Amino acid sequence: MLNNDADQAAPQSYHRILVATGGAAHSQKAVERAIGLAQQFGAVLDVVVVVPTQRGVMASMAAGIPGSGEMEEQIAQSLHDVREAHLKAVVARAEQAGLNVYPHLRSAARAADVILDIAAETGADLIVLGRRHTTALSANLAGSVGLSVSRAALVDVLITH
What we know:
Blueprint lengths: L3 H4 L8 E5 L4 H17 L2 E9 L4 H5 L6 H29 L4 E8 L2 H12 L3 E5 L5 H7 L2 H8 L3 E5 L1
Parallel strand pairs: 1-2, 1-4, 2-3, 4-5
Helix pairs in contact: 5-7
């Protein structure tokens, strides 16, 4: 005879939620979903913003031009400042929602690695990301952070649409 109580899984509860955002529309959806889930479960929220360190196409093309190094530094600093301001805005939004929130601003070539590292460091039991690509082909060609994280994560991953 089966025990019906044992057959029904208890609803999942999350205690520490990590959301990765960069400010684009797809990541804003992830932020709102993560805030809602953190409120629902009474969870701590970690907000991760990664500043890319890879050279852009224009910077690579300009590498041999005199003064391009200074220009590249200014662009990198500007990007850092924009991402830092975004992080502060997300943290303020989460605090306004009554959440216990921790900001993480990191520079890296691969955002997925940073997200996974911070998830492990903080003990996150859910990672929330936005979906940028609309097809599997574009995700594979461009390199999808969500795909990389979902394949390597040891915890649940929610990718918002």
